[in-house]
Amino acid sequence: SSTMSLSEAEVQSARGAWEKIYVDAEDNGTTVLVRMFTDHPDTKSYFTHFKGMDSAEEMKQSDQVRGHGKKVFSAINDMVQHLDNSEAFLGIVNPLGKKHATQLKIDPKNFRVICDIILQLMEEKFGGDCKASFEKVTNEICTHLNNVYKEAGW
To answer: What are the residue boundaries of the Globin domain, all occurrences included (predicted)?
Structure first.
């Protein structure tokens, strides 16, 4: 049984949209994080080694920011590959959500922030259709992550 609300056509167009931005996973992942840290400075507090960095330029050059940007994009990529298999999808989302809820204690609203920045970047680089076809995926990801948080007693 599928917990996903995406049709096969929607899955295909979402994958096409994602592929465009995933080609440059490290650069685009870095851009997304730097925007998050710049527009939502409170998010920097989760990353002790980013705290002293104030300029976007400095953050962009940081190996740690770049490494984490790539990690975020790899995790989303794994989810995108399993949009048509809810068991496999949840097999990625559940441990990721649990780790962020219990170990890292990251406020779940930050998942929405990251997803919105990804959508913004997609629109800037590839237009509104690209953004529109990926929007449902970000909603799925955030919904499922929020469910994991609820189960973890957040």
So the answer is: 5-150
- How long, in residues, is the chain? 154
CATH code, 25: 1.10.490.10
User: Domain tally for the chain?
Assistant: 1
pTM beyond cutoff 0.85: yes
Q: What is the pLDDT of residue 69?
A: 96
pLDDT tens, position by position, 99-132: 999 999 999 999 999 999 999 999 999 999 999 9
DSSP string covering 38-59: HH-GGGGGG-GGGTT--SHHHH
Q: How far is it, in rounded angstroms, from Cα 131 to Cα 116?
A: 10
| Residue 126 domain-assigned (yes or no) | yes
